[in-house]
Amino acid sequence: MSYQALDLCGRLVALVSHRDRTDLDTALRESSRLGTLLQEAERLTRVGSWELNHRTGELLWSNEAYSLFNTTPEQTAPSYASFLSTVHPDDRALVDATFQESFRTGRPYRIEHRLELGDGHLKVVLERGRTSLGDDGQPLSTVGTVQDISEQHEIQQRLERIAFVDPLTRLPNKAAAVRQLARLLRTAGTDQCIALINLTLDNFQSINNSLGHEIGNQVLRASGTCLRHLMRPDDWLARVGSDEFILLRPLAMADRDQVLPWAEEIRRTLGNTPGMGTGFAVQPSASLGVALAPDHGLDPTPCCAVPTRP
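Structure (tokenized):
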């Protein structure tokens, strides 16, 4: 309650005002309740929120943001520089470039990256954010969220292994080979080509029939290991069938004459690996087919097809 005295035409008048605090108290309680609900929602979904003031450099983190970075307000004073220091070194340049692009243009961004939080502990997070620009085009503030998606990433990795990895040799499988060749063809320049070698182990079925499937499996694993040793860093190897492998090598058009000597080196090496690590007199030879993309086609599926046996 408040009082105010006024002189009205020579008469002293007192005005009394009374403010009911009920509405204010209710609003404060509701605000506190909503804040508690927001914190609980962030904790359940593993989503932290933050705001960066570009004029002052102040970075505000929610409680869950501190939790995601394995720290507390008492331990860490958030800043953009300290945030970048927690980003995995292999991801740091891309994360910084993505953030700087948003700071400059105001466009929203979405990026997945890794955090390195000490003791070798890694997390995979999804960052989303949006920057507000002033009339002068300079950034005012950026608000964003950071979500821990480590579990989802691990599930995705497992599904990738199931879909694209041969469980016996741990090499990429045929589906992965088709996908990889499509990527190489998409990104190859006009002065580049892709060499493809389709390799089939000769008389492999007779090894299975005479020595058993376990010995046959050892031969397949040994063949994969042998082929790996013949690869350059940018080569690619997959097992695409029972006893079939595919090797891919990006080349400059001017170097296409290197493909046949490469194929001959593979054939000769496989033929000079006694026993293939089995302890038996196993010495499979190999039949090789060579193709060049785009010369022999641009569709990755038929290029990776397993040849029909006669």
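The chain is about 40% helix and 25% strand. Residues 103 and 139 are 6 Å apart (CA to CA).
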